[in-house]
Amino acid sequence: MNSKIMSVQSTKDLVQHAQNFQMMTHETHQEIDQATFRQGMSNLGAAVNVITTDGAAGQAGFTASAVCSVTDSPPTLLVCLNRSASVFETFKCNQVLCVNTLAAHHAELSNIFGGKTPMSERFLRGKWSTLLTQAPVLEDALISFDCEVVQSMSVGSHDVLICQVKAMKQNQGTNALMYFNRAYCEPQPMN
Length: 191
Hints:
- The protein has a single domain, classed as Electron Transport, Fmn-binding Protein, Chain A (Pnp Oxidase, Chain A, Roll).
- It is of the alpha+beta class.
- The strands form 3 sheets. A 7-stranded antiparallel β-sheet has the order 3-2-6-9-10-5-4, with helices on both faces. Strands 1-11-12 form a 3-stranded antiparallel β-sheet, with no helix packed on it. Strands 7-8 form a two-stranded antiparallel ribbon.
- It has helices spanning 2-28, 34-41, 88-94, 107-114, 119-122, and strands at residues 46-47, 49-53, 60-64, 67-72, 75-82, 96-101, 128-129, 137-138, 143-155, 158-170, 178-180, 183-185.
């Protein structure tokens, strides 16, 4: 009989704790608007990349910091691409891309691929080659990940492209171009 009383009491305690937690969660929940979110994200430093493609739909490229490792088995990363971007249909059709992680001296190239420069003029800057997928590889990029898009999913205004890495090219001795607090910067070692 005592065990039944204890179990009823424990159940009541659990229900009370759950109700208290829901009240606390509800009270601390705050709507995050677009401007607040963007301000917060400006403090999340990220490498700057030029994402390129070539194939049946043509050649295209854009600047992005929304790149992230997914897994190393198989080597996979993700790239986020706005569906309203002028290059979206080209990337969707080609299904290959290269993530060219920029070195500190590439700020101008980042601006060219991130701005309104016509596509035909973007690839006139820098020296380009190819690896397995035929997506353009920036010769002096910090690292280039040559990828096949194996899956995509729509989230809000963007598509998340899941990209399996087919080949890589890496250069040593250069520092990364980073974007932090709405400005380019270069990481420095901590002493």
